[in-house]
Amino acid sequence: MTSPTSDTTAPDSPHRSTVHSLVRLWPYVRPVRVRLAVSAVVAVAASCMSLFIPLVLKWMVDGPVQDRDPGGVWLGGGLVLLLGLLEAGLFGVRRWLVARPLAGVEAAMRKDLYEHLQRLPVDFHDRWASGQLLSRATMDLQILRMFLAFPLVFLVVNGATILIGFAILFTQAWLLGLVLLAPAVPLMILCSYFETSYALAARRAQDQAGDLATLVEESVLGIRIIKAFGRHRSQANAFRRQTRELWDTEIHKARLLSNIWAVIMTLPEIAIGAALVIGSLQVADHKLSAGTLVAFLSTALALRWPVESIGFLLAMSNESATAADRYFEVRDTPVVSDTDGTGAGARPDGIRLEGVRFRYPDAPPHTAELLRGIDLHIRPGETMALVGATGCGKTSLTALLPRLHRATGGRITLDGVDTAELSGDRLRELVAVAFEEPTLFSASVRENVAMGAGPAGAGEEDVRRALAVAQCDFVDALPQGLDTQVGEQGLSLSGGQRQRLALARAVVGRPQFLVLDDPLSALDVHTEALVEAALREVLRDTTALVVAHRPSTVMLADRVALLADGRIAAVGSHADLLRDSAEYRYLMSGGTPEHDDDALSALEGSDAR
Ligand SMILES: Nc1ncnc2c1ncn2[C@@H]1O[C@H](COP(=O)(O)OP(=O)(O)OP(=O)(O)O)[C@@H](O)[C@H]1O
Description:
By secondary structure, the protein is α/β, with parallel strands linked by helices.
């Protein structure tokens, strides 16, 4: 699977606005806005507690300390303790206020992303690596929840604390206040430069983490192949290379952060030092009281954390803006709008393909269409085998019927109704599919099979009938029978067993139209014959298109269509095609065109079965 990688998903412009990206979270934040606002007010109140402490100190130094009044000192100490306890308590209340609602925001965003992913067309999933989607649904959403809980609130709270703090500083000693304010301008210029560089690095790191997740996922899913071909070393090398790249990016981020942090810490320290020197001179000249200088410096020190935190709060906001961009990149991918047609008024006409053309959206430019005008009629109740050279487009053609891909030209009708006019639900009711590579889900056998029955569901009897058609007698021998867990986290089944379960899933809903993509390829000859016999019963009431590679599968069909060069080259019975089509003979004989005549006589023998 190819995917948008770090390069293709990087923002078009490095100057994308952090605020613009984050504002898009508003619809999710709206329901919890009151709690968030209250939590911000509580946090501002908590921060102000720390700003009152210097005022108590000023009162203590200029009053009880100067007057040598121990009672006053105890009172001042008690007040400071009380303010400290209040500050701690208020911060606790703030966390309690936001924890639950923000977990809800994260859950809502994840639910919407998941639902959107389910509705996106197959070609989207062909293009995107699963690790990229996984990292957006997990890591990026966690970053966004943290942003709402911490940087968003603290940018407001610390901003307000800095404003209130400076107001207090200016009322105490305006000259010293100006000295402290002096570094603000260079700091703002530096922060804006830092924001741009950090945004790019954050985006690169998050994309690289997604690529790494893809590699880990592929390695885990393909562990058998990796072991069988002794590829663990090359996989480990690829893993090391990608972790190294991510490590480099993270180090680059840390370097940017440490640079800005150093500046943010140093400039205010220098300003506080200068204020201390100027203030001491003023105290010596009796232009300032000692208590005022103590209070001024304590307030300035209390403002250190709000000022210093701005650097990493900006960094976290940037990462969150990147996470929001990555989240909305998926959410902004449009889903093809569904129609609400029900196919009412349909007349028995089977499956008709008229001038159907198709090319994959991500096919290289200037390549010919894969399907270049398919005309085919499968009569009601008829089973048509689809035969063609490997890679000629058989699977792609079958994917057009249940609209996994949309035809780029022509039309496909089911009982006279254009599939483009049918709603997705109705189409899934009408058409069932089984693929050559069967996918089972982490669920019981019963649930896996019943999944094919659509919204109406399937009872015990339906499931058992479908299992009987697909010759799934092995189910009775499973530890918990129908309730045995299979799929990735369940019992491992053989390829043939999986194929038969997938076939049972396709037939359980008694679909009007059945699409089978070489569904019997993993079965032994004996089991294949049994499945075919049972399937013939099912196919009697169903109009079916069956991709076939072997004469035994072709035997299921009433007629055979030969796909070549993007068109239906011939349609007829197995015997007709064997007689008239050299390519068909070639395909059915296992690929020995020079021995066509021998192949013909051998295959005609099989036709007589
Ligand atoms: N998602 C995709 N994007 C772009 N090209 C694709 C995609 N899937 C398949 N193709 C290309 O389309 C062509 C036809 O593939 P398809 O799977 O339909 O062939 P097939 O006839 O079913 O082959 P086989 O008999 O080997 O199963 C191939 O060249 C393949 O590379």
